[in-house]
Amino acid sequence: MKSSLHAVARLGAVLLLSCVFGSTAAVAALPAIVDGQPLPSLAPMLDQVTPAVVNIATEGHVELRTNPLFNDPFFRRFFNFPERPLRRKTQSLGSGVIVDAARGLILTNNHVIANADAITVNLRDGRDFAAELVGSDPDTDVAVIRIAPERLTAVKLADSDALRVGDFVVAIGNPFGLGQTVTSGIISALARSGLGITGYEDLIQTDASINPGNSGGALVNLRGELVGINTAIYSQSGGNIGIGFAIPANMAHDVMEQLVSFGEVRRGFLGTQFQDLDAELAEAFGLPVSEGAVLASVAPGSPAAAAGLHPGDVIVEFNGRKVGSAADLRNQIGLARVGARVEVVFVREGRRQRAQVEIGARDELAGREVGFRNERLANVTVGDIPENSPAYGRIAGVMIHGVEPGSRAWAAGLRKGDIISSVNRVPTPSVAAFVQVVDGIQGQLLLSVHRGTQAAYVVIK
Q1: What domains are defined for the chain?
Q2: pTM
Q3: Catalytic residue among 137, 139, 141, 202
């Protein structure tokens, strides 16, 4: 009852404000022209853009977690437990942007349509459409849905690489399910990463008000061009405090093209591990650059090795785009088309050099067979730590991609997904180093093994 009264009170306050503003406007409306010049307004631009921003409603379900004992058919019958897993119905509201009117394609967030059995799109003119899912990519939180291409308006995409801090932007979406809402602000920061919002982060930060329900909506510039897809807010209360994040339009477009073509994103792969170039590293290497990504390791037989790249090289450009950090390079590699040939500009021993690299598949080297002279690792398959692993960039080592049950390694406790960082106390930061160390040992092996957040030594006799 209290919450209802509070809700009524809040509604009353809103209505009162509306009445006050309405009566004031009637008495003394703002002039349209001052000194012969029209007042600046975003209305003409919004008239062109807002028909392309849609409201999205979904219905779906999630399976409820139960005690593992109830996975056993005997226990299910004994306790008269339902044969089908328990499910809970879910509903969500969000936003989307029509980016291709001819094909009826709409960009939104993966988390808006996740677990959806039915997706309904509502246009500003009141029309409702049933939408189909074209594809989604949780790693970038981008999804593409399709509706019937009937009298649709699309928004033009801008080059989000050209954005600058201080540029004015407008956020359009469906906050709290209120209906289409417009807020304005500026670009507060660019290339935000390490936030844990998505797997591949190169986010735009803005102070334009973004609230729950704005997810998937449009962030546009003053020309009405799409610069980003609103995706998250930073808040301890759940409401806007002036820190919102959007996926750059260029990244969203690249993901969309792959989802439309393949139904999934096929991640690019170089076979390298890299880290940020900071001032200390630049001084230690005697480099004339202060931004880039330092190659920490290059896997033998990888696309990077085939192109002649070496550990210690600093990548400063990738496929014509500047590389500012390791996260920047990771994003560009991960979104590059498999099989494409790209030019890489790198610095080695103070000199800028160029190389042509053919992008490989993300798991190209994962699980490859490596023959070991030491029979204690027979029937074990190793590879580099994949980029989507939480340990990538955090632990220097190799990952086990397969262990045959019954083998010595299996009996010692090694399992798929374990990471080995040293052998007999010798660091093994790459597959090449691991093979070299293991092949030089004939006796027992002392392995430093990491599994999740735990670490231990394992002996294989």
Answers
A1: 52-146 (2.40.10.10), 160-262 (2.40.10.10), 268-361 (2.30.42.10), 375-460 (2.30.42.10)
A2: 0.65
A3: 141
